[in-house]
């Protein structure tokens, strides 16, 4: 996969099939993108575990901050990487070693974060990969919510978005309960 574009169906499937997210590079600063994304995803019903060695042991938005992925006690469906492109490879390699214990399915690299080697290694380990995208933006775009703020989604319609190939009636993304 080239990771230049992703279908709406693929992104919607990822966002609706995960429940627990590890956010690597979490910040306690409320104006930083990682803080805003964590707060948004938590408000949408996702369980978000912040990872930041400098804040380890503290709480962030009511959640314990972990020093590394290895310190997370519960399961994680997706790792959201808020680190630079070079650092992403190390995060992905750690995630791959913990894949079985955590139940990991997806590696998501934030806007501006792209590491083709990390993506190739993650995919070879059986993980789905998204690069240079933000789950907050994608959630808002696919749910139609982003249009409430006057952002042009490139679609002119009075109808809710539809996913016809999968038979899904709308792109209202709701995290599924973990079984």
Percentage of residues in DSSP E strands? 5-15%
Question: What would you call the quaternary organization?
Answer: single chain
Identify the overall geometry: globular
Main beta sheet, described? 5 strands, parallel
Helical fraction equals: 25-40%
User: How many β-strand stretches?
Assistant: 7
- Succession of helices and strands: HEHEEEEHEHEH
Q: Which structural class fits the helix and strand makeup?
A: alpha/beta
How far apart lie the N and C ends? 29 Å
Low-confidence stretches: 163-171
* SS summary, helix count: 5
**Spatial extent as radius of gyration:** 16 Å
The residue-averaged pLDDT reads 87
Please give a structural write-up:
With 179 residues, the chain is α/β, with parallel strands linked by helices. 32% of the residues lie in helices and 14% in strands. The chain is built from five helices and seven strands; from the N terminus they run αβαββββαβαβα. Strands 2-1-5-6-7 form a five-stranded parallel β-sheet, with helices on both faces. A two-stranded antiparallel sheet has the order 3-4. Strand 5 (78-81), helix 3 and strand 6 form a beta-alpha-beta unit. Helix 1 crosses helix 5 (135-143) and helix 3 (85-102) packs parallel to helix 4. The longest helix has 18 residues, at 85-102.
């Amino acid at each position: 996969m080239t990771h230049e574009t992703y279908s709406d169906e693929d992104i919607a499937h990822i966002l609706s099939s995960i429940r627990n997210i590890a956010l690597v590079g979490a910040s306690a600063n409320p104006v930083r993108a990682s803080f805003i994304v964590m707060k948004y995803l938590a408000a949408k019903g996702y369980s978000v575990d912040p990872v930041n060695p400098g804040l380890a042991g503290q709480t962030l938005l009511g959640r314990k901050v972990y020093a590394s992925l290895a310190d997370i006690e519960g399961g994680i469906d997706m790792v959201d990487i808020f680190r630079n492109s070079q650092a992403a490879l190390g995060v992905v390699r750690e995630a791959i070693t913990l894949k079985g214990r955590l139940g990991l399915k997806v590696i998501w690299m934030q806007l501006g974060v792209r590491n083709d080697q990390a993506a190739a290694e993650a995919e070879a380990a059986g993980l789905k990969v998204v690069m240079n995208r933000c789950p907050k933006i994608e959630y808002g775009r696919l749910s139609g919510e982003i249009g409430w703020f006057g952002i042009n989604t490139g679609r002119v319609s009075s109808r809710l978005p539809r996913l016809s190939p999968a038979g899904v009636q709308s792109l209202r993304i709701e995290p599924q309960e973990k079984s």
